[in-house]
Amino acid sequence: MMKRLFIFLFIFSVLTLTAQNKKSYKIELKIKGVEDSVLYLANYYGDKTFLVDTTVRKGKNNYLFEGKKHLDGGIYIIVGQEKNTIFEFLISDSQHLKFDSDMKNLIEEMKVKGSNENSLFFDYLAHSNIQFKQLKSYQHQIKNLNHNNDSIAILNKKIEELNSDIVDYKEAIIEAYPKAFISHFFLAMKSPETNKSIIISKEDSILAFKNYKKHYWDYMDFNDDRLIRTPVFHNKLEYYFNAVAHPAPDSLIKEIDAFLNRLDEKSKLYEYSLWHLTLKFDQSHRMGYDAILVHFANNYYAKGKAPWLNAEVLKNILTEAKKRSNSLIGKKGPNLVMQNLDLSPISMYSIDKNYTILYFWSPKCGHCKVETPKLLEFYKQNKEKMDLEVFAVCADTNMQAMRTYIDEHKLNWINVNGPRSYTQNFHELYNVYSTPFIFVLDKNKTIIAKQIKSNQLFDFISNYEKIKQNKK
C-alpha cells in the first residue's frame, strides 16, 4: 500500500494541473451488472443530497455524465432508478473521471482513471471492507461465547488491532497527501484523543471533557469549502451543539459566536452554519431559546453578515426577533394595565408577591379548558405556600363570555380583559398570539419562565427557590 502511495505522490501534481485546465466535467461509468436505464448524479450539501445531473444508458453498462461547468468539490453519489446508492466518489483533483467495475465486487474491483484521489479513496474502501468483514466475524464469535470465556479478551484485542489498522491506513494517506481533499476529509472525521486509562475520578472526567471540547475542531480545515459537500461537517456541527456545548441559552450564544468567528464570512461553511444554527434553535421548543434568534438577528442579520439571504426572509427574521425581544427570559416583563370584571383598571405591577403567574387564556379555547382547571388546582394548593398570584388575561373581547366562564369555574385569582387595556397591545408586548400561554415572573417582575405548563409550575418554582438559596 505504501509503495502505491509514493508512486501516486509523484504524479499527483501533474494530475492536478491537468484538471485545472479543463472547465467542464466528464464522468464515464462502465459498471457491469447495473440494469438501470437511467442513473443520477447527486452531491451532499450539509445533511441533504441534491440532484446534479441525469444520464441514460449508452450501450451495455456504459453511462456518461458531462457538463460545461466545473462541479463544486466534495463527495458525489451515483444513484440508481430506485434511489439506491451505487457508489460514492470524490470531486477534487480532477473533473474528468472514468470508473470501471462489476456490481458483484464493486469496490474491490473498481478501476479509476483520471483521479489520483479517487484511486486512493477506493483502495481505502476496499481495504476497510476486508477489515470490517473480519471484525464482524470476531464480533459474532464473541456473541456466541460465555461471558467468562478467556477467548473474549483475545478477540477484543484483535478487533482493536483491526480498528487501529484502518486508522493507520487513513493516517498514511494524510501524511503522504497533506493538501489533498481526501486528507482534509479523513481529518475532518477524526475526534480529539482521550486517554480513558487516566480517567479515575470525577475531576479526571471533567478535565478530559474540557480537553475534548477545547480540541473538538482541531482537525477540521475551515478553509476548505468542499467539506460542506460531505456528511462529515454537518454531523460534527450537530454533535457539538447537541452534546458538547452547554444547552443554556446564554452559553449557546457564546458558543455560537466563538464557532462562527472561526469561519470566513464569505465561505460556504459560514453561510451553511449561520443558517443551519438559526433554524435549529428557532425550531427548538426549549424554554429561553427565543433569545438565540434575537441574538442572531441583532448581531448577524441586522449587520449585513448574511448578504446571500433573500430580502423578504431577512425582513421576516428581523420582524420576528423584534416581536420576541420584549418578553425574553431575564428581562423585566412589560406592565399590563387592564379592566377587571368591574371595569376597573388593574396593574400587574401592583401585585406584591414573590411570584406572578401571567396566564393568557380564552373561554372558547379548547386547550385552555384543559389547562385552566390544572392551573386553578395549583393555585389553590400553592398560593400561600409559594407566595404567588395569578394575573389571568382573557384574550376574548366578549366580557359576558369571560364573566360566565369565571363564575362557573370559580376562578378567584386576578382576572382582566386583554382587549380592554390601558397599556400597549398585549400581543405585541408578550408576543402571544395563541392560548393558553403561561409566564412566570419573580418579585421584581423579571421573566423567569415562559411557555410552561401548569403541571410543571410546582417543580420549576421549587427548584428556582433552591437555586436562590444556594446563591446566598
Give a description of the structure.
- With 472 residues, the chain is an alpha+beta fold.
- Among the domains are: 11-114, Immunoglobulin-like (Sandwich), CATH 2.60.40; 245-325; 337-471, Glutaredoxin.
- The protein is 45% helix and 19% strand.
- The protein is built from 14 helices and 15 strands.
- The chain has helices at residues 2-20, 116-143, 151-176, 181-188, 202-214, 231-244, 249-260, 268-282, 290-301, 311-325, 366-382, 399-409, 426-430, 454-471, and strands spanning 25-32, 38-45, 48-56, 62-67, 74-79, 85-91, 96-102, 111-113, 337-339, 345-347, 355-361, 388-394, 414-421, 437-441, 447-450.
- A seven-stranded mixed beta sheet has the order 10-9-13-12-11-14-15, covered by helices on one side. A four-stranded mixed beta sheet has the order 4-1-7-8, covered by helices on one side. It has a four-stranded antiparallel beta sheet with strand order 3-2-5-6.
- Strand 7 (96-102) and strand 8 (111-113) form a beta hairpin.
- Helix 8 runs antiparallel to helix 9 (290-301), helix 9 (290-301) crosses helix 10 and helix 11 crosses helix 14 (454-471).
- The protein starts with a helix and ends with a helix.
- Mean pLDDT is 92; it is low at 1-21.
Question: Which features would summarize this protein structure in a list?
Answer:
472 residues; alpha+beta; Immunoglobulin-like; Glutaredoxin; seven-stranded mixed beta sheet; four-stranded mixed beta sheet; 45% helix
